[in-house]
Design brief:
Blueprint lengths: L1 E8 L3 H11 L5 E5 L15 E2 L10 H20 L3 E2 L3 E5 L5 H13 L6 E4 H7 L7 E5 L3 E3 L1 H14 L3 E4 L5 E5 L2 E5 L4 E9 L5 H7 L8 E10 L10 E3 L12 E4 L5 E4 L3 E2 L13 H8 L11 E11 L11 E4 L6 E5 L5 H20 L1
Parallel strand pairs: 1-2, 1-12, 2-9, 5-14, 12-20
Antiparallel strand pairs: 3-8, 4-8, 5-7, 6-7, 10-11, 11-12, 13-16, 13-17, 13-18, 14-15, 15-16, 19-20
Helix pairs in contact: 1-5, 1-8, 2-8
């Protein structure tokens, strides 16, 4: 049986960031990922936006860790040459009656520590995004984009340099919790870890149940994307968002100029019953076009191409508008740490989440 201080289950951006933060403190660490490569699920199937911290309730983990994580991520990307751009974001409204919604978003963002927000007029919008139709917008200059695949690769290299054992293609078959640690059974070995970090994404609820931990539910929510054709990419310079979805489960279908010059449209937000259905019953392009043409009136439906999809791991059902990150020790298995329900802004907050998980691990291992 192999023995380690910490076993991190899940090789997404949060699991990798946690493994790096834990191993940096000299703790023996392994990371187990069921896929043959790390970062194949939500970590690289998203918009790649570095959020500023506008949308989340004051004093929530999402608000605090988004602001902390944003600053840490910009510094990390600059230090490790991860492609990124602090391009700013416009949240636009087409009708003056919607300006109070922008003002409320600005108020919430400032309460969360986002100090550079301002309401701008149509002339400002035209200067930044000439093809957008809007009467006013909330300008967030500290919002940006990051190349998620390179971020994943960089975190993997850092973890390896810090002697993290990366076990890809390794599923957890079973586990037994004891007072001094948790034994994990994989297809090839048994691992005894003094602490286990549950960063299993869509399957965090399954892992908790398997280890005798708390019962909770992860709800899979699929987001679908389109892309602009090459000739239509010149219509967008940066990040263009509508007002947030009234359901609370999405930020609205938005336009994102990637670091390599393409433009994504999306994502949508749809609850589904299974955790691995990325392509069944795809929405027609007309659904996405209907949303985005309100922002870009010059866009034609022929300018859209089918894009990818992603599935978010949410902790709240469709009728509940908000659930915070679950970042804490399990109440039944004290040596199990949950990093569950890490939907947006999980990519932005990943380094801050990693530090918090590391602190929780130190409480157990001290």
């Amino acid at each position: 049986m192999e023995r380690v201080d910490v076993a991190v289950v899940g090789g997404g951006v949060v699991g990798l960031a946690a493994a790096c933060a834990i191993s940096e403190r000299g703790r023996s660490t392994c990371l187990l990922e069921r896929h043959p490569k790390v970062g194949l699920e939500a970590s690289t199937h998203n918009s790649g936006v570095i959020h500023s911290g506008i949308y989340y309730p004051e004093e929530s983990l999402k608000a605090r860790l988004c602001v902390e994580g944003r600053n840490a991520l910009y510094e990390f990307c600059a230090r490790h040459d991860v492609p990124h751009t602090r391009c700013g974001k416009l949240i636009v409204c087409s009708d003056a009656t919607e300006i109070p919604v922008l003002e409320e978003l600005a108020k919430r963002g400032r309460a969360n520590g986002v100090e550079d927000l301002c309401i701008v007029d149509s002339q400002f919008i035209k200067t930044h995004e000439p093809f957008v139709r809007a009467c006013a917008a909330l300008w967030s200059p500290s919002t940006g984009i990051v190349e998620a695949e390179t971020l994943i690769r960089t975190l993997t290299q850092l973890a390896t340099a810090q002697d993290v054992f990366l076990l890809t293609g390794t599923a957890i078959l079973n586990g037994t919790a004891a007072s001094d640690g948790v034994e994990l059974q994989t297809p090839r070995e048994r691992i005894f870890a003094r602490t286990v970090v549950n960063a299993a994404g869509l399957y965090a609820d399954n892992l908790s149940a398997m280890l005798g931990g708390e019962m909770f539910t992860i709800y899979p929510v699929r987001g679908e994307y389109a892309e602009l054709s090459p000739k239509a990419q010149e219509l967008v310079n940066g990040l263009i968002y509508p007002l947030p979805d009234r359901s609370g489960h999405g930020l609205g279908v938005h336009l994102t100029k990637t670091t390599w010059g393409t433009v994504t449209v999306g994502p949508t937000s749809r609850y589904q019953s299974v955790k691995d259905d990325y392509e069944g019953n795809r929405l027609p392009l007309g659904s996405l076009y209907e949303s985005v043409c309100r922002l870009l009136p010059n866009l034609k439906i022929g300018d859209l191409r089918m894009g990818g999809t992603g599935i978010r791991a949410k902790l709240c059902p469709a009728h509940v508008p908000f659930a915070d990150f679950m970042l804490r020790r399990d109440t039944r298995v004290p040596r199990l740490i949950h990093a569950a329900g890490i939907d947006s802004p999980g990519l932005t907050a990943c380094l801050a989440i990693g530090r918090q998980i590391s602190n929780l691990a130190e409480e157990i291992l001290a």
